[in-house]
């Protein structure tokens, strides 16, 4: 029974009301506001008009009072059937954020202090036929941890967060505001069992070959009757062919278990079996094959009665992290079914500041966009949340691997406190048991940047304390994971490995030379220095990086104009205004200016800032990721920072809060293509090197074309090259001198395009100068709209740089955008709307960096 209706919410000041009075079934909550569960306090207040939208202007500051109050939820539900004496009635809260006390019919069931785990209460005696009242009190964070916060301990962005097992970015981060949520953020259920229930099913592939696969199944039960013997039926089915393995039945005696702590009581039982699958259909990432999923069914029986059952999707696959290559040298390569994977993707943060109120469809939209951008791995970053089930469902379905951080980031954590460590231990156990059967799950990682930053800041003298938190990811986590999930690698931190935890020689790395200006390499004991200059922050630093695996790197870009207009007062839509500065939570705003100064030049107004920052981000990520891919197999992965946003701000994301891609998203679809044709060139080089990169399981034979032309489209160089690239390999196809390419043409007036002649992938544009040094001619764009077919046709008289299509709507699904055009080239771009709304064609604007904007008046283009 899901309890989601009739919830109400009210705030109290500290000392205003007595807890047992508010929790009493007789308490009058008639005038409380209605609330949705799952949800949170802030979205409830927004819906009732009691706070202004926290994302608009500085409204996040106006609603800071919310985090100071005590909040109570109440609901009434009806229990129609009378429970039998032997029934076990469990009240389950999948997620409470965070310091909550739960009451049923005026009885205090217990308190919680961890947002990330579920909480179960045995309530057989407290329930009654008819109406029942649940009340949940949420205490403010400051009331629980204010006295514990040690101001001298290092913790980025907030001091009190290290004592709270809740979304760390709720306290504010360098890409999002402080919005300290509270509420019932996941489902609430009342469950009834007789003698036993299934607690956990752990399924993992032990072996996988062409002819047979072996799948290990472990089942954990809770039993409330030692007298019974239980049988567990395990089946594996395929949608097309039915059962694909002989069903197995386990027999477990109730006398074989051990007692469980807590009010839920009972005894713990466990058993296991193996399923043999003939000619298995393997699960692959979508770029390597089909992410085939079977259905695993587990049912529990006793005395001829079905007591409980579970069903879950399961892919058959082997996955290991190879940390040494064939020569014994350090490596960091994921091997899927024995095939080397180049991990292509991004870092994933919570998709909203108010995560409890986000519908599942928002996840599905973003996941589809990740696949469309040819991403095969996402890293769930350690300062947010262990994601909702829908996230992992979609990754399993779409063939996207998950690098899973535990939720510890950029801080020292009080591992000397027994209560805190007990809380963390329970969290790790619950999270691992919830996620370990996920086919997509590739890696457990202990934290984000704690090991690296502690050592660097300790060496610099900024942190005088011991490494508090070290025991969590170097003792507690590995011990628990060895017991609970030996099938996966545990990686203590990210970055980690080598003589400097951010060493390029071993492990994974975060390249913050670009953007933050970190001076690399360094070794243990040396201070971490920075170079805030055009050269020190330049994305051209990527070419020096020969990391084994780049798990974080990136640069800012503005949100789209539509997104800014919805959240910034019109009078403040000016470059450098206080409201625009508030969109950027990174402290040193000079970094973005220096990056643009080096590539596009410094923007002079808001429009230029939007376009220059987007172009710099897109070209910078392209420059770095194409370098990393050319460096395979020494480099085996590139996960840029970051994929999505939690609010409408300026950040490293490539998709803004309203689901609108920035230029870099559309670039990603091209630079992550499994068959990449790429030119290695940096302005000032005397030659261009043409490479082919193959991330598929088949050797490919292709013909590459390299074209250089002027701004008017006149071709000065055209040549084709034969390429044969081995499976999961690369080929250095050709080396061409710059003088031969240009044939006397000014480099500042040349456009270079490389493409596969068979049409695989898309044209890849290169320029021989930085954008600020190019001599683009002003262009006139020809734009035609076919609303019935949902398409826009664009052509240009001269070479057009970064053609962009804009409309005033969220979640627009552009087939392509922010693309370059050659003279005589016509692009037909289709557009849809992911929320099934109409397309506002009358707001369409098409422009280029070197061309006037073409707006639609009705459906007639008007040049502005």
TrEMBL record:
Entry EC number(s): 3.2.1.25
Domain Beta-mannosidase Ig-fold: 778-847
Domain of life according to the entry: Bacteria
Beta-mannosidase-like galactose-binding domain span: 19-186
Positions of the Glycoside hydrolase family 2 immunoglobulin-like beta-sandwich domain: 196-317
Known catalytic reactions: Hydrolysis of terminal, non-reducing beta-D-mannose residues in beta-D-mannosides
Domain Mannosidase Ig/CBM-like residue range list: 687-773
Chief location bin: secreted
Pathway recorded for this protein: Glycan metabolism; N-glycan degradation
InterPro entries (UniProt xref): Beta-gal/glucu_dom_sf, Beta-mannosidase-like_N2, Beta-mannosidase_GH2, Beta-mannosidase_Ig, Galactose-bd-like_sf, GH, Ig-like_fold, Ig-like_GH2
Localization terms from the record: Secreted
Protein keywords: Glycoprotein, Glycosidase, Hydrolase, Secreted
Family: Belongs to the glycosyl hydrolase 2 family. Beta-mannosidase B subfamily.
Subunit note: Homodimer.
Full protein name: Beta-mannosidase B
Lineage of the organism: Bacteria, Bacillati, Bacillota, Bacilli, Bacillales
């Amino acid at each position: 029974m899901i309890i989601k209706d009739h919830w109400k919410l009210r705030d109290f000041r500290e000392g205003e009301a007595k807890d047992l009075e508010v929790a009493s079934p007789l308490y009058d909550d008639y005038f409380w506001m209605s609330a949705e569960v799952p949800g949170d306090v802030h979205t409830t207040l927004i819906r009732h008009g009691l706070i202004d939208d926290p994302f608009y202007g500085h409204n996040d500051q106006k609603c800071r009072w919310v985090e100071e109050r005590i909040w109570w939820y109440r609901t009434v539900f009806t229990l129609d059937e009378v429970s039998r004496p032997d029934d076990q009635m469990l009240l389950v809260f999948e997620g409470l954020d965070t310091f909550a006390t739960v009451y049923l019919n005026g009885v205090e069931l217990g308190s919680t202090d961890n947002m990330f785990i579920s909480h179960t209460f045995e309530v057989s005696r407290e329930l009654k036929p008819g109406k029942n009242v649940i009340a949940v009190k949420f205490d403010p964070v400051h009331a629980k941890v204010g006295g514990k916060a040690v101001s001298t301990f290092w913790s980025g962005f907030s001091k009190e967060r290290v004592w709270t097992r809740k979304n760390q970015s709720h306290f504010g981060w360098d890409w999002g505001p402080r919005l300290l949520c509270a509420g019932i953020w996941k489902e609430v259920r009342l469950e009834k069992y007789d003698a036993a229930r299934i607690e956990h099913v752990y399924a993992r592939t032990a072996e996988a070959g062409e002819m047979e696969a072996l799948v290990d199944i472990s089942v954990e039960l809770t039993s409330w009757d030692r007298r019974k013997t239980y049988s567990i039926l395990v089946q594996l089915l395929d949608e097309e062919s039915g059962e694909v393995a002989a069903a197995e039945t386990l027999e477990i005696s109730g006398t074989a278990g051990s007692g469980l702590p807590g009010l839920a009581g009972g005894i713990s039982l466990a058993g296991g079996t193996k399923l043999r699958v003939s000619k298995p259909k393997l699960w692959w990432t979508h770029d390597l094959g089909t992410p085939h999923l079977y259905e695993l069914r587990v049912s529990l029986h006793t005395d001829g009665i079905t007591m409980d059952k579970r069903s879950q999707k399961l892919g058959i696959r082997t996955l290991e992290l190879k940390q040494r290559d064939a020569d014994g040298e350090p490596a960091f390569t994921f091997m899927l079914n024995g095939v080397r994977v180049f991990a292509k993707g991004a870092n994933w943060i919570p998709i909203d500041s108010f995560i409890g109120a986000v519908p599942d469809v928002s996840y599905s939209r973003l996941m589809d966009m990740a696949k469309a951008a040819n991403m095969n791995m996402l890293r769930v970053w350690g300062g947010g949340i262990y994601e909702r089930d829908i996230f992992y469902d979609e990754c399993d379905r779409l063939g996207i691997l998950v690098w899973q951080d535990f939720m510890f980031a950029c801080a020292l954590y009080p591992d000397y406190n027994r209560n805190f460590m007990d809380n963390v231990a329970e969290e790790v156990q619950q999270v691992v048991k919830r996620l370990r059967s996920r086919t997509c799950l590739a890696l457990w990682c202990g934290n984000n940047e704690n090991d690296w930053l502690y050592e660097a800041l300790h060496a610099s003298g900024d942190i005088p304390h011991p490494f508090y938190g070290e025991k969590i990811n170097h003792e507690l986590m590995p011990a628990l994971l060895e017991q609970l999930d030996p099938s996966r690698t545990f990686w203590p931190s990210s970055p980690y490995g080598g003589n400097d935890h951010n060493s390029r020689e071993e492990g994974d790395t975060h390249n913050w030379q670009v953007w933050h200006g970190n001076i690399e390499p360094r070794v243990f004991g040396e201070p971490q220095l920075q170079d805030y200059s055009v050269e020190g922050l330049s994305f051209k630093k990527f070419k020096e990086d020969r990391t084994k695996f780049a798990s974080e790197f990136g640069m800012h870009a503005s949100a789209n104009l539509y997104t800014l207009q919805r959240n910034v007062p019109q009078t403040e839509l000016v470059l450098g205004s206080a409201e625009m500065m508030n969109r950027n939570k990174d402290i040193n705003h000079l970094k973005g200016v220096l990056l643009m100064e080096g590539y596009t030049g410094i923007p002079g107004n808001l429009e230029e800032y939007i376009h220059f920052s987007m172009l710099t981000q897109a070209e910078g990520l392209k420059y770095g990721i194409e370098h990393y891919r050319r460096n395979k197999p020494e480099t085996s992965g590139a996960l840029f920072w970051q994929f999505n946003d939690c609010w409408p701000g300026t950040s490293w994301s490539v998709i803004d809060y309203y689901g609108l891609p920035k230029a870099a998203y559309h670039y990603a679809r091209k630079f992550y293509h499994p068959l990449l044709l790429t030119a290695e060139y940096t302005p000032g080089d005397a030659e261009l090197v043409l490479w082919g990169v193959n991330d598929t399981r088949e050797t490919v034979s292709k013909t590459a074309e390299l074209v250089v032309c002027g701004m008017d489209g006149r071709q000065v160089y055209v040549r084709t090259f034969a390429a044969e690239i081995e499976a999961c390999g690369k080929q250095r196809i050709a080396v061409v001198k710059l003088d031969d390419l240009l044939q006397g043409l000014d480099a500042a007036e040349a456009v270079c395009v490389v493409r596969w002649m068979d049409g695989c992938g898309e044209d890849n544009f290169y320029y021989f100068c930085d954008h600020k040094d190019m001599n683009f001619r002003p262009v006139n764009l020809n734009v035609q709209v076919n609303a019935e077919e949902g398409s826009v046709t664009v052509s240009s008289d001269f070479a057009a740089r970064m053609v962009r299509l804009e409309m005033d709507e969220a979640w627009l699904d552009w087939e392509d955008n922010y693309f370059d055009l050659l003279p005589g080239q016509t692009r037909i771009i289709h557009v849809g709307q992911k929320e099934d709304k109409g397309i506002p064609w009358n707001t369409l604007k098409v422009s280029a960096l070197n061309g006037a904007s073409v707006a639609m008046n009705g459906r007639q283009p008007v040049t502005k």
